[in-house]
Design a protein that fits this description.
With 475 residues, this protein is mostly helical. The chain has 20 helices and six strands.
Length: 475
């Protein structure tokens, strides 16, 4: 019971006490009615006279007729009513006093309990340090990373590693597939059938996440082979200007999220994307765009490993909100691109859920690390109707490849990058789990199924990981 509830006791009790007073009055009237019924009416004469009630001899036999005789006198009746009223008032006063004492005691106990609770809370606060991992937000982690400085050992000194424990601020997705989608199974099938049939309004839409293996898909299929064969294709890269392009495709004013395009044009785009480990994607972005001060930059001398070291560049990368070409490309880039309608949006659980819903709405998701898996090639042969399809590797020209790559980066930097990109790692984990369950639909035990036996239509009719919400109706 709180103080507000205690304050509400008095008016309620007053009403209760008033109701008791009325009850006593009704009882008194009831007694008089009973006497009226049981005592012969002709013997009752309500005449005035001097009261003889107190002077009566109670030791003698006192019959009902005697009692009726006394009640005939008005002064006797008035005296009885006065005694009854005084008794009732005393009873109400006693109950009210008891109530006030009880409320007062309850208030004292509540105040005492509140003081104890406050004291316990203060003690608990003293026990938890201000920099507790459980209390940190993502913004506080960014501030912590900004204060982090790389110290290199001198001469033969040992490298001192500062302790760092990444708090789990983002929970993993518990249900796969996540039970929401912008498109129905029928709309997905329509997009594939229309694209393969080269219908006018049907397009293969490739959502190219930067440095996630997308160039192999572009150079191998989307930019060259498919258009040459008469298939309509569209590529959207994960830069800030992509939202304006999404608006153009969805024929809407202002910026548009990917999910909104899926919702507005559900049967027009046979869509897919490619994802890789978020931290490795950032390291690859350093190697491609920052190592030599630009995508096609040149070393300062023939033996140079870099123009700027990965440790220094990646540290500045985070300080500058992950900016390479666009801001936030190094801070939960996947979640922002698939869940928002602008790169600088604030990531919340709703934004993350929308990113999950958007991934579910795509026709398929490729995992860069699984390009070599036979089941990946089988899936593409089936969906794209390309029996001889082979995935091309090492898509870039030799003068970029021959410089080698920088794989060894200070683990302290990598660890903090991974921690700051928790949303992306959870989204990537979900994409991997969903893609793995989908790949399993192209096998039977240890046998790889023929792509002709596994069609997109059959998968949308039978496999929940493909239709997501409601299966496609059987033939």
């Amino acid at each position: 019971m709180n103080v507000t509830q205690l304050n509400a006791v008095s008016p309620i009790s007053a009403q209760f006490m008033a109701s008791k007073e009325w009850l006593c009055a009704f009882l008194g009237i009831g007694i008089l009615l009973l006497l009226y019924l049981f005592v012969p009416q002709q013997s009752i004469n309500f005449s005035t006279g001097t009261s003889e009630f107190k002077s009566m001899d109670y030791g003698a036999a006192f019959t009902p007729n005697d009692f009726a005789e006394v009640l005939r006198k008005k002064d006797v009746r008035d005296e009885l009513l006065e005694l009854f009223k005084e008794s009732n008032e005393n009873l109400i006063a006693q109950v009210t006093a008891m109530e006030e004492n009880t409320v007062s005691d309850l208030r004292k106990e509540l105040t005492k309990g509140k003081e104890i609770k406050t004291k316990d809370k203060e003690e608990e606060t003293k026990e938890v340090p201000k920099n507790s991992n459980l209390a940190k937000s993502m913004k506080e982690l960014e501030k912590q990373f900004k204060k982090f400085k790389i110290t290199e050992p001198k001469n033969n000194e040992a490298l001192k590693i500062e302790p760092f424990t990444c708090p789990q601020l983002v929970n993993p997705v518990e249900v796969i597939p996540y039970p929401d989608c912008y498109r129905t199974a029928a709309e997905k099938l329509q997009s594939q059938t229309s694209w393969l049939g080269k219908f006018r309004n049907s397009t293969l839409l490739f959502l190219h996440v930067h440095k996630a293996g997308g160039t192999e898909m572009r150079l191998g299929f989307v930019e060259k082979k498919f258009p040459k064969d008469g298939y309509k294709c569209e590529i959207i890269e994960s830069y800030g200007h992509s939202y304006a392009k999404l608006s153009r495709l969805s024929k809407k004013n202002g910026l548009t999220a990917i999910g909104e395009l899926m919702q507005r044009k559900p049967g027009n785009y046979f869509s897919f994307t490619s994802l890789r480990d978020p931290t490795q994607r950032i390291l690859s972005q350093y190697d491609f765009e920052m190592r030599w001060d630009g995508q096609y930059g040149r070393p300062k001398h023939s033996n140079a490993l870099w123009n700027t070291s990965p440790e220094k560049h990646l540290h500045n990368f985070i300080l500058n909100k992950g900016k390479v070409i666009d801001r936030f490309m190094g801070l939960n880039h996947y979640t922002r691109w698939f869940g928002c309608e602008r790169t600088g949006c604030k990531i919340t659980q709703d934004v993350f859920n929308n990113a999950l819903k958007t991934l579910n709405s795509l026709d398929f998701i490729l995992i860069t690390e699984w390009y070599d898996d036979n089941r990946t090639a089988t899936m593409l042969r089936s969906f794209w109707n390309m029996p001889k399809l082979k995935i091309r590797h090492r898509a870039f020209r030799h003068y970029i490849r021959d410089r080698g790559k920088i794989k060894g980066v200070d683990p302290r930097i990598v660890e903090r990058l991974r921690c700051l990109n928790q949303w992306d790692h959870r989204l990537y984990d979900y994409a991997k789990s969903l893609s793995y369950l989908r790949l399993k639909t192209f096998q039977e035990g240890d046998k790889l199924l023929d792509f002709k036996d596994i069609t997109y239509k059959k998968l949308l009719q039978k496999e929940k990981t493909w239709y997501i919400v409601k299966p496609l109706a059987p033939d």
